[in-house]
């Protein structure tokens, strides 16, 4: 009786093992590669929250999302919507810089293909041009590029005007100055540049799996 029971257990275990082997054999062929984005690669993002010189101090964290796919040799490395995290590098209410409010930002990490990667980026800076005109001027794209770059038409809502090395950009109407503060609204578009190369692990399924994949 015990012998029959043992044989049944062995057969059951063998069946389970064979089934698992079939499942493993049916798994798609996945190739894992590491792709390196060179220093200077631009990462366009949209802010996920408002930032304000009146409220937010240096070190305040923020969350944003990649607004356009970041590609390398035609392959998408950072997908649209990928979460990025950063912090405020500098934040000064107006009156401390000849009447201007000032803020600069930097990215710290990006989430891609199931992993979080530490990154170092440019620190684009923004300043209000004046209380009366309530315009904005982009005054730098990183260390050593702090000189003011041009102005915006009097009376208009703030916009960004390029950076020293193209490290930051935005769209008109997304940045607003208050009476004495600088405000970056949610969904504000910004572009950061990598200071050092970023190696990202990517997964590619075989062409045969893609052809046989059920629709």
- Ends: how far apart? 50 Å
Task: Please summarize the sheet with the most strands.
Answer: 8 strands, antiparallel
Task: Write down the CATH topology.
Answer: Lipocalin
Number of strands: 15
CATH class: Mainly Beta
From the alpha-carbon coordinates, what is the Rg to the nearest angstrom?
26 Å
On the 0-100 scale, what is the average pLDDT?
Answer: 71
The assigned CATH architecture is: Beta Barrel
Strand content: 35-45%
Structural class: mainly beta
Number of helices: 2
Sequence stretches where pLDDT stays below 50 over 5 or more residues: 21-27, 139-174
CATH superfamily: Type IV secretion system, VirB10/TraB/TrbI
Number of domains: 1
Q: Portion of residues in helices?
A: 10-25%
Order of helices and strands: HEEEEEEEEEEEEEEEH
- Spatial shape: elongated
Topology of this protein?
Layout: H1 2-26, E1 30-37, E2 42-47, E3 51-52, E4 61-66, E5 70-72, E6 75-78, E7 83-97, E8 100-112, E9 115-118, E10 125-128, E11 136-140, E12 175-177, E13 182-184, E14 189-193, E15 198-205, H2 207-212
Antiparallel strand pairs: 1-15, 2-4, 2-14, 3-13, 4-7, 5-6, 7-8, 8-9, 8-10, 10-11, 12-13
Key features of this structure:
215 residues; Lipocalin; 3-stranded antiparallel beta sheet; 15 strands
């Amino acid at each position: 009786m015990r012998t029959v029971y043992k044989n049944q257990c062995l057969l059951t275990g063998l069946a389970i093992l064979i089934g698992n082997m079939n499942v493993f054999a049916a798994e798609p062929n996945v190739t894992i590669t590491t792709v390196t984005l060179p220093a200077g690669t631009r990462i366009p993002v949209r802010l996920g929250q408002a930032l304000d010189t009146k409220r937010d101090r240096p070190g305040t964290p923020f969350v944003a999302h990649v607004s356009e796919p970041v590609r390398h040799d035609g392959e998408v490395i950072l997908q649209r919507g990928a979460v990025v995290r950063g912090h405020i590098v500098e934040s000064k209410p107006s009156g401390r810089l000849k009447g201007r409010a000032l803020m600069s930002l930097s990215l710290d990490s990006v989430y891609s293909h199931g992993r979080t990667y530490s990154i170092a980026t440019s620190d684009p800076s923004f300043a209000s041009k004046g209380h009366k005109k309530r315009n904005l001027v982009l005054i730098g794209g990183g260390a050593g590029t702090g000189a003011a770059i041009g102005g915006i038409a009097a009376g208009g809502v703030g916009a960004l005007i390029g950076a020293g090395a193209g490290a930051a950009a935005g769209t008109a109407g997304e940045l607003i100055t208050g009476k004495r503060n600088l405000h970056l609204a949610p969904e504000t578009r910004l572009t950061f540049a990598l200071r050092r190369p970023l190696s990202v692990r990517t997964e590619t399924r075989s062409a045969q799996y893609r052809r046989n994949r059920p629709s």
